[in-house]
Input
Amino acid sequence: MWSVEDSLNELEALAQTAGAMAVGRMLQRLPHPDGATYVGKGRAQELVEIVKRLDIELVIFDDELSPNQQRTLEKLLDVRIVDRTALILDIFALHAHTREGQLQVELAQMEYRLPRLSNQNVEFTRQAGGSRGGTGVGGAIGVRGPGETKLEIDRRRIRSRISDLKEEIEEVRKQRTIHRRQRSGQVLPVIAVVGYTNAGKSTLFNTLTSAGVIAENQLFATLDPVTRHIVLPSNQEILLTDTVGFIQKLPTHLVAAFRATLEEVVDADVLLEVVDIHHENAIEQSDTVNEILGDLKAQDKPRVTALNKIDLLDSSDEIDTSLYPNAVPVSALQKIGLDALQEKIAEVLAQNMETVQLLLPYQKGELVELFHRRGSIDLEEHQENGVRINGRLPRSLRGLYTAYIQPAR
Ligand SMILES: Nc1nc2c(ncn2[C@@H]2O[C@H](COP(=O)(O)OP(=O)(O)OP(=O)(O)O)[C@@H](O)[C@H]2O)c(=O)[nH]1
Ligand SMILES: [Mg+2]
Output
């Protein structure tokens, strides 16, 4: 379970990533948040004092604020008010480098803004009509007119932008699907690196592939998926994909907007989950990852867990591998345990293989070659009428070999 303090620590790290410096925090236990001020009225007044005294420029709330709460707080405190969702969207906007990433972030931002925009403008019109007073029919008359028209225009503009964005994203998504098909033409198994943000996914990805993906002590350093081809020590070839990190209370707009990117995860053969085992919330983080994988209907995929950052642990006794599926302790940074990790990946891939005995005619050289790349060979004999191969093959490839399967000797 995430505690309030843990969540606030994380919020502080998010704020830092977005370029803010935290100077203080306030927490309050309430049966439910106040409808107008989120915190209780008394604490809100306290906050006003603190903001003045410390000359604070920004107050961040660790939950999604209602448009009404946001406005009330902004008036009361006279500083910028940001909620957790807006903060995460901000970081995503900073880190989106590809066209697809930028489109997805903008879509999420527009969807976040739409209900807020309308409310803000309703407030604006009411203020404008306020001098006429009253909340009855007369008051409503003051509210109509240019103000409302402008609101309608703004809303329409955002809605039309949202539908344009969705169309463009769909275009990009189609491109991806084509690429993925081409990839599956190569019939290599795809391993998606998943995990909590800052767990070390990109560092591990870089170490395994020698790719220069940005890896930083920042939340959500990676937004755009990258795929590389690697050969495991067992000589088996795989495609490894680095993906966007997960976080608790992940804004729903973001999950929806990033569906195209997350397809990389949904389509993978095996998931390689990276856990920052040194983090005090390692278990909570992994639980959150499982929840999101569940939402994506990807929680039942074969999985290998890299328990990362063991170089930061005082002793290896602290590691309980039994808590995670197929866990291997590693340090992506210090390159510890990587052979064992790759062996584990090969092992889990092998569990998805089946044993076959084949006699492949000499003119089917490409199937022999494919077996070498994708399968694991126990016996290979050149006979008069073809190549005899006994070994194991990914279940997905069995269809290509059906005609050459031999009865067991
Ligand atoms: N000490 C130590 N630090 C590590 C290790 N692996 C990664 N790190 C550090 O952890 C931080 C985050 O690493 P990234 O690889 O960017 O993490 P990520 O999971 O890709 O993060 P996002 O893309 O932001 O979700 C960086 O400062 C890395 O240097 C490790 O094995 N040991
Ligand atoms: Mg990354």
Remarks:
- Residues 195, 197-203, 215-222, 245, 308-309, 311-312, 331-334 surround guanosine-5'-triphosphate (ligand 1) (CB under 6 Å).
- The chain has four domains: 4-92, 96-170, 188-350, 353-404.
